[in-house]
Structure formats: C-alpha cells, structure tokens
C-alpha cells in the first residue's frame, strides 16, 4: 500500500509498505531517503502521533493516507 509522508518543506514522498510493517519501519524508510536522524523523527496522522511499535494497520493508515513528519527534539 502507498503511504505519503509530507516533510517540513511540504514535499510529499511516497512509500510502499505492507499493513503488517511497523511505524518504525516506515520511519526508517523516510529517514534513509531524507537523510534525517531516526531518533528525531516524529510522524503524525490527523491529531495522533504514530508509535514505533504499531503496525501500519494498527495505526489505522489506509492506502494513500498522508502522514506528517516533524522533528522531535526531546525537550
């Protein structure tokens, strides 16, 4: 399934994932492509932060959904 991540520059990047893949795996794909630091990667869908141990299915992501990236600074 295709999931779209909107980065901080409002660019849309498409990723192919399986419903049983984890949010962490999606973050890894994004960070590898963007050159971002995985530890600082935060993904949200709607008002909800996505947690690393959730599967794509558990996070209620559907084909073509847009997920938003932001940096988690750990303050």
TrEMBL record:
Pfam families linked to this entry: ubiquitin
Ubiquitin-like domain ranges (all copies): 1-68
Gene3D superfamilies, per the entry: Phosphatidylinositol 3-kinase Catalytic Subunit, Chain A, domain 1
Cleaved signal peptide residues: none
InterPro entries in the cross-refs: Ubiquitin-like_dom, Ubiquitin-like_domsf
Domain of life: Eukaryota
Protein name: Ubiquitin-like domain-containing protein
Species annotation: Paramecium octaurelia
């Amino acid at each position: 399934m295709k999931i779209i991540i909107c980065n901080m520059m409002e660019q849309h990047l498409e990723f192919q994932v399986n419903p049983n893949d984890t949010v962490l795996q999606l973050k890894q794909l994004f960070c590898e492509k963007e050159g971002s630091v995985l530890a600082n990667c935060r993904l949200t869908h709607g008002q909800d932060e996505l947690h690393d141990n959730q599967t794509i299915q558990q996070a209620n992501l559907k084909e073509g959904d847009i997920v938003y990236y932001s940096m988690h600074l750990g303050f």
